[in-house]
Amino acid sequence: MGNTHSVGIVEVGPRDGLQNEPELLDTSTKVEYIDRLIRAGARRIEAVSFVHPKRVPQMADAEAVMAAVPRPAGVSYIGLVLNRRGLDRAFAAGVDEVNYVVIATETFSLRNQGMGVEASLDAWHDIAAAARAAGIRVSLTVSAAFGCPFEGEVPADRVLEIVRSALATPADEIALADTIGVGVPHQVRDLAARVAEAAPGVPLRMHFHNTRNTGYANALAAVESGVRTLDASAGGIGGCPFAPAATGNIATEDLLYTLHRSGMRTGLDLEATAATGTWICERLGKTQPPAMLGRAGGFPAGAR
Amino acid sequence: MGNTHSVGIVEVGPRDGLQNEPELLDTSTKVEYIDRLIRAGARRIEAVSFVHPKRVPQMADAEAVMAAVPRPAGVSYIGLVLNRRGLDRAFAAGVDEVNYVVIATETFSLRNQGMGVEASLDAWHDIAAAARAAGIRVSLTVSAAFGCPFEGEVPADRVLEIVRSALATPADEIALADTIGVGVPHQVRDLAARVAEAAPGVPLRMHFHNTRNTGYANALAAVESGVRTLDASAGGIGGCPFAPAATGNIATEDLLYTLHRSGMRTGLDLEATAATGTWICERLGKTQPPAMLGRAGGFPAGAR
């Protein structure tokens, strides 16, 4: 086996997965999805976002979801926030962590966040300080870190500049997101090494979409480069409603297959996660789930 | 960029891709598929197999396909053969290379080839010597080299034993196939290194299926481990009719995306290959092609 270390998984299906699905699920189905994920071993779950319901209708019931989810010990709920209003809602809803997004390119930031990168970084400092004062973990995600639908190439130096600028206010974790699924492993290795150097001691997380079938190679390159946490969504559902041609997150069950077969531990159960992925895809009316493990099954047992 | 070397692609869509498709295509469509692949830059094409038409009905017109394909300079056609009868048909049909398959496990070999591994190796010696005497390149593919649907784990030592035994008669190329799509990159690296040591100077090719979303990571691991040739099928069509739950080969266009973005050269055109993949999937009635590049498009140009 190549590695024997542990990899943390942030299950983002309830947030990034669902938010791009056209069919609105009711609150109880979302809560059941989260409950099934926890029973499959998920311990960090990006459960909701606190954004304007007109922009992301699927997240309009964020408070109701958070009020109804189970609260076993050791499970941490993350809420995505984009501004101070969202942060206040996240506090009130009782999340354990908040995740704030800065988009690496000006054009994409203006279109998606309604403000440029500098303004977005200003808001980060305010939000990170407030979260810290409230005793809540706060992570920063740099989106479009591997390429932008509008500007094309995103220089690694640009990503590093944003990370350095943001860390004037400490983050509990830095994440780099391949929002539109264009990255390849050498970018992952390069960025992982350079961010680790620029932000020593800050845990690094990565977030991949499988839009061009690079997501799983990128995920493995990340953990082989020292990244200890990966985002994934059970079923491989999801995308970004504001990114052209974006498709789903890497599927948690398919990621588990590669990691477990590579000798790494995640704490998640492959079969229960695959069953949950199949279940949510059925609920969403997907005839061909992006996740493949549910159809293919795990490594053959070899009973002759 | 991580690498700047050249990677050879064997386009296997016309053989491995089509043979598992339930819809039988007519000869002229197969020839058009091959012609489009050549115009997209393909130079080695596994065009047909010479097996019993009752076992693989899609390949019943192998002679007619070979009689009709274009023959531009520099294009090499490979025919898959499993026995001496197939080899004689391949000679008569005018292929440039033959590819013979030994399955790494006894159970799978008995079920698929109708003979055990030893008998299959005996046939290899006969076929390789005859091909060599006829001046035709001959390659050996070891199938199920990364795992078996019936026996489970396939020890690397077993694969090496087969390679060493086979090479009593020289091969122009050795290929390792992950026939059921269960392999992960550390297996690829391990086998690549060990086969290179056991068979110094013999070019190594690898063949991956994306059944569990590991195919592209495996392909990249292979080229990073010194493997210079990869099999892929435009559109990501294909599978193995005798392997439970096997799905398509890695898609040529999606492989090109990763390789080209990683700084490697292939000689193939990404857009023309993706268009060919989309075209063949439409011909086969696939509403959702396994290949993703045709839907997602390449790396964004970034015209602001």
From TrEMBL, chains A, B:
Signal peptide: none annotated. The keyword Lyase applies. Residues 1-22 are annotated as: Disordered. It comes from the Bacteria. CDD domains: DRE_TIM_HMGL (cd07938). GO terms for molecular function: lyase activity. The keyword Lyase applies. InterPro entries: Aldolase_TIM, HMGL, PYR_CT. PROSITE patterns: PYR_CT (PS50991). Keywords: Lyase, Metal-binding. Residues 7-274 form the Pyruvate carboxyltransferase domain. NCBIfam families: PRK05692.1. PANTHER family: HYDROXYMETHYLGLUTARYL-COA LYASE. Belongs to the HMG-CoA lyase family. This is Hydroxymethylglutaryl-CoA lyase.
